[in-house]
């Protein structure tokens, strides 16, 4: 019996090939004109652990950002929203260990002072500095760690892959691995399709993200800093970022919880050269694709590194009437504790998938539904298909698990990434604060 056709959405590998993009080293420093550092400022309980990251452009440049829509948004989110409003920025400073959320006016003041400290070190306006925090909610964040940590980080700024890596490490909380990605490519500076090699420029896009738990982003994802040396205008940067976020970070769920601190920032230094790139420019799709590829890599890393996770799970919903219907069904499956625990237990229990799809309020006829699990047809036209349990157990040895369901109602589709749910998730979150 033929398995379901894979969902037809752009994915990083396909987009990279289409636009001639190649993975490269360097993370957030892959783009020319970017420097980074990660230092131990004493903001965490663990002595010597990196907990303060600083990412800076050589000069103030175009900037765009997306933020959490959680009503309990943290102080750094509120301050950064104000600062990014003019579409320019010089630097981003981030700390782990304390979210500076639900800390009232004192928390806002600490975020402002932190931006001012960075501005003083770099010689820029404090409004050109964005702030991000992650960690425990409701705990006052002292300024002391920043007062000696920011000068340390500023003096350590470098444009090397190692410096980018240190910054990625400094923002980790329950993450088990740092998460970085970068791509390089060539884009024409001319507006026509016949631009020759002499009118081409090489550019890069890269970044890092932290995220492992409290993950179901809504307009961003935990803490993410992206950069490109393509000469994007602020409007083009915003368009590229929001499109990428919507199709990557907003399609990830670990535990259905949206953080109070979600922040995703893109800096565009323009150091690659060439004319400014607007949304209408011939070069825009290439740069947007690179940013999208970086974001998808990072989004998949978040799902794979979900707290206590042992599997990266891709949920594809096909044959829906609308894209919204497909996304609702996909999230219902991806967030189902029963689906997630079945996957952790290597149990090919497709009934959990069917039940999760059926409970979410989307209208469909169960007699039209097909389900594939691990690439194997397990349900056709609403009725079970015999499967080889031993074969399924062998398939579960793969670190990635694919779940696909066709509703048989239309042509719309959606993809969501998640992970399984293990005993370790309870352990991590049972004593996270204490």
Low-confidence stretches: 191-197
- What proportion of the residues form beta strands (DSSP E)? 25-35%
CATH homologous superfamily classification of the largest domain: L-amino peptidase D-ALA esterase/amidase
Report helical residue fraction: 25-40%
Intertermini distance? 52 Å
Kindly state the number of beta strands: 15
CATH architecture of the largest domain: 4-Layer Sandwich
Sheet of most strands = 9 strands, mixed
CATH topology name of the largest domain: L-amino peptidase D-ALA esterase/amidase
Shape: globular
Gyration radius, rounded: 22 Å
Mean pLDDT: 91
Provide the domain count: 2
Helical/strand content category = alpha+beta
Could you please describe the fold and organization of this structure?
- The chain is an alpha+beta fold and 434 residues long.
- The protein is 32% helix and 26% strand.
- The protein has two domains: 12-304, L-amino peptidase D-ALA esterase/amidase, CATH 3.60.70.12; 312-430, Roll (Ubiquitin-like (UB roll)).
- It has helices at residues 12-18, 75-84, 104-122, 144-156, 161-170, 234-247, 284-304, 323-334, 337-344, 350-358, 389-395, 423-430; strands at residues 22-23, 34-39, 52-67, 88-98, 129-136, 179-188, 200-210, 223-228, 263-268, 312-320, 370-373, 376-380, 383-384, 400-406, 412-419.
- Strands 1, 2, 3, 4, 5, 6, 7, 8 and 9 form a nine-stranded mixed beta sheet that branches.
- Helix 2 (75-84) packs across helix 3, helix 3 (104-122) runs parallel beside helix 4 (144-156) and helix 8 crosses helix 10.
- The termini are far apart.
């Amino acid at each position: 019996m033929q398995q379901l056709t894979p969902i037809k959405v752009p994915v990083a590998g396909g987009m990279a090939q289409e636009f001639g993009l190649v993975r490269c080293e360097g993370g957030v420093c892959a783009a020319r004109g970017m420097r980074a550092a990660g230092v131990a400022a004493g903001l965490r309980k663990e002595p010597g652990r990196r907990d303060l990251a600083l990412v800076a452009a050589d000069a103030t440049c175009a900037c765009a950002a997306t933020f959490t829509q959680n009503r309990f948004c943290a102080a750094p989110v509120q301050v950064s929203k104000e600062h990014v409003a003019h579409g320019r920025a010089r630097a981003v400073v981030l700390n782990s260990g304390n979210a500076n959320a639900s800390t009232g006016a004192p928390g806002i003041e600490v975020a402002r002072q932190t931006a001012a400290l960075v501005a003083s070190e770099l010689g820029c306006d404090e409004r050109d500095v964005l702030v991000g925090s992650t960690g425990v909610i409701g705990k006052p964040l002292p300024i002391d760690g920043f007062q000696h940590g920011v000068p340390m980080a500023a003096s350590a700024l470098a444009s090397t892959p190692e410096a980018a890596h240190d910054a990625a490490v400094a923002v980790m909380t329950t993450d088990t691995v740092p998460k970085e990605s970068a791509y390089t490519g060539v884009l024409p500076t001319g507006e026509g399709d016949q631009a020759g090699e002499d009118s081409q420029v090489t550019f890069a896009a890269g970044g890092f993200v932290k995220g492992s738990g409290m993950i179901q982003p809504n307009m961003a994802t935990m803490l993410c800093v992206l950069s490109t040396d393509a000469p994007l205008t602020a409007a083009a940067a915003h368009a590229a970022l929001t499109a990428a976020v919507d199709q990557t970070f907003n399609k990830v769920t670990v535990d259905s919880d949206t953080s109070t601190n979600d922040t995703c920032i893109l800096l565009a230094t323009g150091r690659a050269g060439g004319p400014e790139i607007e949304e209408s420019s011939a070069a825009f799709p290439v740069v947007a694709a690179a940013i999208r590829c970086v974001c998808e890599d990072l989004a998949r890393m978040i799902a794979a590194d979900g707290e206590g996770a042992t599997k990266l799970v891709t949920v594809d919903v096909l044959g829906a009437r609308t894209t919204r219907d497909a996304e609702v069904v996909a999230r219902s499956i991806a967030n189902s504790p029963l689906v997630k625990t079945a996957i952790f237990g290597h149990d090919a229990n497709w009934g959990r998938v069917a039940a999760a799809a059926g409970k979410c309020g989307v209208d469909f006829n169960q007699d039209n539904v097909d389900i594939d699990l691990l690439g194997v047809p397990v349900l056709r036209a609403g009725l079970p298909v015999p499967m080889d349990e031993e074969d399924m157990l062998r398939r579960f040895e793969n670190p990635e698990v694919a779940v696909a369901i066709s509703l048989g109602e239309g042509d719309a589709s959606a993809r969501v990434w998640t992970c399984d749910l293990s005993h370790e998730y309870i352990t991590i979150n049972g004593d996270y604060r204490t």
